[in-house]
Design a protein that fits this description.
The complex is a heterodimer of chains A (71) and B (261).
Chain A: E1 5-10, E2 13-18, H1 23-29, E3 37-41, E4 44-46, E5 61-69
Chain B: E1 5-7, E2 10-12, E3 16-19, H1 26-35, E4 40-47, E5 66-70, H2 77-89, E6 95-98, H3 111-123, E7 127-132, H4 136-145, E8 151-152, H5 166-175, E9 181-183, H6 189-197, E10 202-205, H7 207-210, H8 215-235
Parallel strand pairs in B: 3-4, 3-10, 4-5, 5-6, 6-7, 7-8, 9-10
Antiparallel strand pairs in B: 1-2
Helix pairs in contact in B: 1-8, 2-3, 3-4, 6-8
Classes of the chains: A mainly beta (71), B alpha/beta (261).
């Protein structure tokens, strides 16, 4: 089992993430579908193909966003 | 009938654009979009609610529809630019309904900030549909900056107060070459018809359809109205007059008597 641990701000909520070293691992940990979301790390958009290699570090601010109904 | 709108080299057959908020459920939304054969639909971007897995709205929008992501939630140009870039990265194309709204009471847009965002996003290749208070100078500047259309408001978003700005919208139609698309405030089909009669290229309706007793039936009503208004715009020849102009001959009345000595 992974011992990775980082305290981050995820969608505005400070939380400690255990067991996810990359953004893709975080998405899987949260049971999200990467095809329907977009991820921003520290105000930088991370393309889907880079989620696998983009590492999570202490104090990162991560936004996970998706489409909703709107006018 | 060969009467389509072309934006970004894309053919738009249906001039009733649909906003996807406030529907009772996503299945009804899909029924509406399928029934009226919607071409352009708007969506918004929000943080994922990680604890409660929601259905993905894109699964309920027919693949034939073009998605236009709005920048709702943006209070200034920078926030709108950020949302537009996120929308593009999310993989739904580069059509953006650009709205910059610092006012929560009336949800009236900030024209100056909208212009600033348009300047940046147009250079990045976005197809921009700016939502504005109808104002000619701003509309001219937006088009010069690269906006693909202009979306003046009829009345405050979701208010169903109707097209209170029709005189100003007409000025935009007369003076701006880009398509004018009324967005916000349209509460009834007759108001959509009015917009089309005066020459709008399209209208965007959300609340009036989504909150109707039967959204599919209401969408059909709006669709008929948009088509009716468009046909009237294309076929009107005689301007309104001040005095009567009889439709029946003014001669040969029964009982008419000639001058007799």
């Amino acid at each position: 089992m992974s011992t990775l641990k980082a305290t981050i701000i995820l969608n505005g909520v400070k939380q400690t993430i255990i067991g996810a070293g990359t953004l893709l691992e975080l998405i899987n940990l949260k049971k999200l579908n990467k095809e329907t979301i977009v991820v921003e790390k520290n105000l930088k958009i991370i393309p889907k193909e880079e989620l696998e290699k983009e590492r999570i570090a202490e104090n990162d601010s991560i936004e996970i966003i998706s489409f909703v109904g709107g006018g | 009938m060969n009467d389509h709108l072309i934006i970004d080299n894309k053919k738009i057959e249906n001039r009733l654009f649909i906003g996807t908020g406030k529907f009772p459920n996503k299945k009804i939304l899909r029924d509406v979009l399928q029934r009226i054969k919607a071409d352009v639909v708007t969506v918004a971007l929000r943080r994922v609610d990680i604890e409660s897995k929601e259905e993905n709205i894109l699964d309920f929008i027919p693949k034939t529809c073009r998605i236009m992501t709005n920048t709702s939630g943006a209070r200034n140009a920078q926030e709108a630019i950020r949302i537009a870039r996120l929308a593009k990265a999310a993989g739904c194309g580069n059509w953006i309904k650009l709205e910059v709204i610092p006012d929560n009471k009336y949800l009236l847009p900030d024209n100056a900030q909208t212009l600033e965002a348009t300047k940046v996003l147009a250079k990045e290749g976005f197809i921009i549909f700016p939502y504005i208070n109808p104002e000619l100078s701003t509309a001219r500047r937006l088009v010069a900056a690269g906006a693909s259309a202009v979306m003046p408001l009829g009345s405050p978003i979701g208010s169903k107060r109707g097209v209170k700005t029709s005189e100003l919208v007409k000025i935009l139609i007369d003076e701006i070459e880009a398509p004018i698309i009324v967005d916000a405030g349209i509460g009834y089909p007759s108001e959509a018809a009015l917009c089309m009669e005066i020459g709008c290229a399209a209208v965007l309706v959300n609340t009036a359809i989504a909150t109707a007793k039967d959204p599919v039936a209401m969408a059909c009503g709006f669709s008929l109205a948009v088509n009716a208004g468009r046909l009237a715009y294309q076929n009107t020849t005689k301007a309104r007059g001040k005095y009567a102009d009889p439709s029946s001959p003014l001669t040969g009345f029964l009982g008419e008597t000639k001058n007799r000595p």
